[in-house]
Amino acid sequence: MSHIHMPDGIISAPWWVSGYFLTLMTMLWILKSMDKEEVRKKIPFTGIAAAIMLLGMSVPLVIVPVHLSLAVLTGILIGPKLGFLAVFVVNIILAFFGHGGITIVGLNTLIIGSEVFIGFYLFKYFTQRLHKVMGTVIATVIALLVSTTLMVGVVGMTAGLTEALPHHHGEEHHQEEHYVEEEYDEHHHGELQEEVTKIKYLVFTGWRAVFLILSAGILLESLGTALIIRYFLKVRPDLILPPQDIDI
């Protein structure tokens, strides 16, 4: 849902370098703070969760033109720290397969990694107060909304960034530049509107189609995550719940 598919060269260096820096710093903190014994126990599940996430992010849904990330599911099953590491590995593999450039792996890891952390902690919060399936749905919906907003914000801020930078070469040039920037913004706003009008889904077009596609994708991923969690709660509740919450 929130994976950026831009090729290399679109996002300027300061942005993707910052993305890598923040990602590597986060991973360094995770590696230093994790319990080694816990990591050994969860390594097999980490590989399985990463493989499932890779499959979901590689194959688009048939009924909706988006793909699942399953990042919330990963966070719930193996925890947010190992989940974040799994997200980084999955993004590296996806980049080699052409699902976005190598340069945006850091940004993609931060965005999708936010789903892992937010989904995990919201799952813990809601499932203690609501029915566990309903809590899973709510946690997944909120996490997806946040990560999708982050993705849109990152793409919006990085697109055309160099052209928007101010230049100070005198008042006359500044006024001319301001006029050119207004034309640039109007031009790109018109291009955006033109591209949106081309989007069609079922009987809807434009922004209605975009809203319906995103809503359907979020709903499907939330329901899918909830059903998988429901299955694990029946067969292996110890993978999800703390010992004191398991009914014996």
Provide a compact summary of the structure.
With 248 residues, the chain is mostly helical.
How many structural domains in the coordinates? 1
Which residues sit in consecutive blocks of at least 5 with pLDDT less than 50?
A: 160-189
Strand order of the largest sheet: 1-2
Rg over C-alpha atoms, rounded to the nearest angstrom = 21 Å
Helix content: over 70%
Which descriptor suits the 3D outline?
globular
The main β sheet shows up as: 2 strands, antiparallel
- What is the CA-CA span between the terminal residues? 37 Å
Helix tally equals: 9
Number of strands: 2
CATH fold-level assignment: Arp2/3 complex 21 kDa subunit ARPC3
Listing every helix as H and every strand as E from the N terminus to the C terminus, the arrangement reads: HHHHHHHHEEH
Average predicted confidence as pLDDT: 79
CATH class bucket: Mainly Alpha
CATH architecture: Orthogonal Bundle
List the helices and strands and how they pair.
Elements: H1 13-33, H2 36-58, H3 71-78, H4 80-96, H5 105-127, H6 132-158, H7 161-164, H8 171-198, E1 200-201, E2 204-205, H9 206-235
Antiparallel strand pairs: 1-2
Describe the overall structure.
The two termini are 37 Å apart. The protein has one domain (13-165, 199-245): Arp2/3 complex 21 kDa subunit ARPC3 (Orthogonal Bundle). The protein has 248 residues and is mainly alpha-helical. α1 (13-33) packs across α4, α4 (80-96) packs antiparallel against α5 (105-127) and α6 (132-158) crosses α9 (206-235). The protein has helices at residues 13-33, 36-58, 71-78, 80-96, 105-127, 132-158, 161-164, 171-198, 206-235; strands spanning 200-201, 204-205. β1 and β2 (204-205) form a beta hairpin. This is Cobalt transport protein CbiM. InterPro entries: CbiM/NikMN. It is found in: Cell membrane. It is a multi-pass membrane protein.
